[in-house]
Amino acid sequence: MQIFVNSKYDFVKWRFYAVSFSVLFMLLGLAMFLKHGVNWGIDFAGGATITLRFKDAVPMDRLRADLTSASIQQYGKADDHAVLIRLPELNKETDYAGQVVAKLNADLNPQTTTKLDLNFHGKDRLTELLAAADPDAKGTSPAARDYYKNIAQNIVTHRSELGVYTNMAQVTSTPGVTTRIAAFLNDKCFLGAFNVLDQETVGPQVGHDLQQKAILAVVLSTLAMGLYLWIRFDLMFGASAIVCIVHDVLMSLAFLMMINGEFSLNIVAALLLIVGFSINDTVVMYDRVRENRRKLKTRMNLEEQLNLAMNQTLSRTILTSGSVVIVLVALILFGGKVIHEFAWILLIGVLAGTYSTVTIVPAVAIAWNNMTGRKHDLAGPANRPTRVETKQDVPPAQRKRRAG
Amino acid sequence: MTRSLLWKVIIILAVLVGFAAAIIPTADNPEPIRRGLDLKGGTHLVMRVNVGDAVRLETDQGSEMLKAQAKKANLPIPTTRRVNDTTFIAMLPPDTPTTEYERIAKDYLGSFDVSRTPDGAMQFKMKTAVQTALERDTITHTVETIDNRVNALGVTEPYIATEGANRLVIELPGVDDPARVKDIIKTTAQLQFRLVEGEPGSTPEAAMTNVPANMKTEVEVLPGTREDALGRSAGVEYYAIRKTVPVTGTDLKNAKASKSQMGQPNVAFSLTPDGARKFGDLTGQNIKRRLAIVLDNKVISAPVINSQINESGVIEGSFTPQQVADLSLQLRSGSLPASLTTLEERTVGPSLGRDSIRQGVLASLIGFIALILAVLLFYKGAGVNAVLALLLNLVILLGMMALFHATLTLPGIAGIILTLGMAIDSNVLVFERIREELRDGKMVRAAIENGFSRAFGTIIDTHMTTIISALFLFQFGTGPIKGFAVTLLIGLFASVFTAFFVSRVIFDVMYKSQNRPTEMSI
Fold it and tell me: Which B residues in the span 416-435 are in contact with A, Cβ-Cβ below 8 Å?
């Protein structure tokens, strides 16, 4: 299947509409930014997040009473009984999430001082407890310890498969648990209210460092890209490429503002990728402009050169962007929570990259050319006595000579 | 097939087999591609080593040394005051000649610069080189100690590294009880054996009442746990403890969990030869006095010395079996020379990792299949070529990750998919060129030849730009993002190889055998 064969769209003509659209889009993003500010994730703002899975319905009132400054949301499906707790930044370095989990544990699981919580602790403590009590009378040899360690491991693995133990029968049906061990577990252990799915703490110092690093990374990679293109092509291309990158990043950020998405490390990774990937369309187009300059027979101004190159590379642009978009859509639809926003931002960035290649880049290049005395309006026989043929003028029969 | 083409095919097959072998799990290597903490579950910690602790301790020991040597030389003992972490001031009794003290400073306090304050006191400031070396040693020692502890816990493939001047990054895959592990890592476990003056009291003041007058400045009050008759804890008790520390945790040879005759858990320890001598002197000269066992500035217990003890002893206190196991582990692996402050923690439980990997893999598979279908739809016969190149790209990418021990993270999975998108781009660039050449009336083989050579420069450019951004990603990213950058970089190199070399060879195999192919499915 072939698309856009010999297309002759006048892309250059549309550039003012496109610039207006981009400016409007960005202004909308700016308005959202002014209204809501940036929704910094804990990577940058500092603070803590904790995801808990409860064995019964979530005791929302208890949580709210215990954690007055936290925002608490349902996590996943309602019958998962899971919540995501976000705690605002503390102005000191401490094991924030760990302390909050310990506090909740003390409040919701009062038995924890006398019995071992099978929804909370890992295999080591259970091994310790089993080996000390020795319900299966295996003695105190290392082999006996391994025996209990193995059982403890099975119990903890079974828990992570289930997400949380909801009743003791689930524990005692774990492979390796004998009747005596089951009796012992029923006596000395209990099932706590929740299992900790994940916990994160970012102290103020790290948050600040990450923020600086992220800004530096995006700015420096943009400049490095412009520098590379300046060396590979010329200053006009380098400059318009930088404008193009800034445009794509700003469009993605404007989108992030509109959906009030969380600005996290993953988003920075997405922005860096946009810097590297969305520029590709521009590079391919410029390559074609340069190649054409060497071969053109008729004199062409920059506008015509750009239009020609954009039409020649159009089907490649659509196909490549299309295949990346297919993959990103799959990630958005099925990738789960962690990938979701990351994939969205990439998608917007890739689309913006394709669109800016045929609109913003020519707009900048033409403006640059007009301001620098139209030095780029060259190509053609007037200043190049060249023997290289062009496609338009040479009949196919003659062209065989050049093949290979 | 010509000879050189045959060789190329052999090279490609060798690459395929080699990398495929690297990613097939074996008995020795059940997980050839390491999964990151976000997929496997585990704990990522960034901690600050408070190197100031070690410097302060050195300064305090300097002032103790000055006093001890003054006492030995029968000079009046100066009063000392620490000004900051690196500096202390010694106030000499009025009308004392300073030459003797200067001699002591020269002989025993070589790591300090000595100067005079305006009011005539001696000021000792630690030399900068000494401080720098001490800070460096503190970091090294901390890393070693944490390494010992983590290994004793049985964590597989832990990662501990320094970052910047005083930060540590600790990654512990598969940890299922982060609270306990953090506790074990962070406890400094500075064990000291020090003599008690007077009797314990229920308030700090009460503890000081029975201290002889001449010892009042030589002791400090530390809290401990009061025990009732049955050895259970019952509130806080204060002890006046001598500042001098004759025996410390570094004198221990071994420590292990044990039980008293009453079945109470305790820690049994044995001492190094040097430690045994010091401990023998201490206990032999102080029979019937109380010896405090101090851990991190808390009195664990303060038994009365009944007889001289040389090589081994037990530490008793109101311990649970778990505490005894943890304490003996910490004592065995050595104490930390400085305290740690948690700056960052990311813990992913194993069940969340399981969910993420399931969704990530599912989404990637769907994306991959959709990509293949799209390529086949657009390029038909040449699409098969692109798909073969793509599959080989995937095998190389995963194989390289296995060989380099790169870590596969969740954003890394997205990185793989994106890399495949890039690889497809290279094929698209080439194929579009071939189509153009064919439209211009070129013969099949010439069109292929031109298509590849014309697209070459463009493909290098597009890869270079993405490589630049991947390098920045690697430089500035942390944890999973770094994994993503590595995946992307490897994938980019693989994609140049597959798009140019492999695709080219496949076309050559398809069309070179025919004499003058006139039709091309593209």
Answer: 417-418, 420-422, 424-425, 428-429, 432, 435
How far, in Å, CA of B387 to CA of B384, rounded? 5
Same domain, B362 and B395: yes
Nearest CB neighbour to B414, from listed A161, A217, A343: A343
How many Å apart are CA B216 and CA B77, to the nearest integer? 14
Least Cα distance to A285 among A260, A259, A313 occurs for A313
**How would DSSP label each residue in A10-57?**
-GGGGHHHHHHHHHHHHHHHHHHHHHH---B-HHHH-EEEEEEEESSS
B205: contact with A, CB 8 A cutoff = no
Q: Is A213 within 8 Å of chain B by CB? A: yes
- Domain range holding A102? 47-202
Give, for all 404 residues of chain A, the pLDDT tens digit: 677 777 888 888 888 999 999 999 999 999 999 998 888 888 888 899 999 999 999 999 889 988 888 889 888 788 889 999 999 888 888 889 999 999 999 899 988 888 889 999 888 888 888 888 888 888 888 898 899 999 999 999 899 888 899 999 999 999 989 999 999 999 989 999 999 988 999 998 888 888 888 888 888 888 888 888 888 888 888 889 889 999 999 999 999 999 888 888 888 888 888 888 888 888 899 889 988 888 877 778 889 999 999 999 998 888 888 888 988 898 889 887 767 888 899 899 999 999 999 999 999 999 999 998 887 776 555 554 444 444 444 444 444 444 33
Taking the C-alpha atoms of residue A117 and residue A60, their distance in angstroms, rounded to an integer, is 21
Last residue of a domain, one of B105, B129, B153: B129
Look at B468 and A162 and tell me if their CB atoms are within 8 Å. Answer: no
Judge: A199–B443 Cβ closer than 8 Å, yes or no.
no
Whether B371 has its CB under 8 Å from any CB of chain A: the answer is yes
Q: Indicate if B387 and B427 belong to the same structural domain.
A: yes
Q: Does some domain include residue B177?
A: no
CA distance between the termini of chain A: 26
Q: Is the complex ipTM more than 0.95?
A: no
Structure pTM? 0.79
Number of domains in chain B: 3
In a domain, B209, yes or no: yes
Which of A5, A201, A277 is the closest to B344 by Cβ?
Answer: A201
- Interface check A115 vs B, CB under 8 A: no
Find, in chain A, the residue whose alpha carbon is nearest to that of B417. A327
Range of the domain at B208: 187-346
Contact list, A390 vs chain B (CB under 8 Å) = none
Using the 3D structure, point to which of A168, A185, A202 is the last residue of a domain: A202
Interface of A with B in 301-320 (CB under 8 A): 312-313, 315-316, 319-320
Beta carbons of A312 and B153 less than 8 Å apart: no
How far does B12 lie from chain A, in Å, by closest CA?
Answer: 24
Distance to chain B for A122, nearest Cα, Å: 5
Report d(CA B467, CA B346) in Å as an integer: 28
Nearest to A125 among B322, B465, B467 (CB): B322
Answer yes or no: do B277 and B296 share one domain. yes
Q: Where are the beta strands (DSSP E) in A88-203?
A: 116-117, 189-190, 194-202
- Identify whether the C-beta of residue B90 lies closer than 8 Å to the C-beta of residue B63: yes
Task: Identify the bridge partners of residue B46 per DSSP, sorted by sequence position.
Answer: B169, B344
B80 vs A: CB within 8 A: no
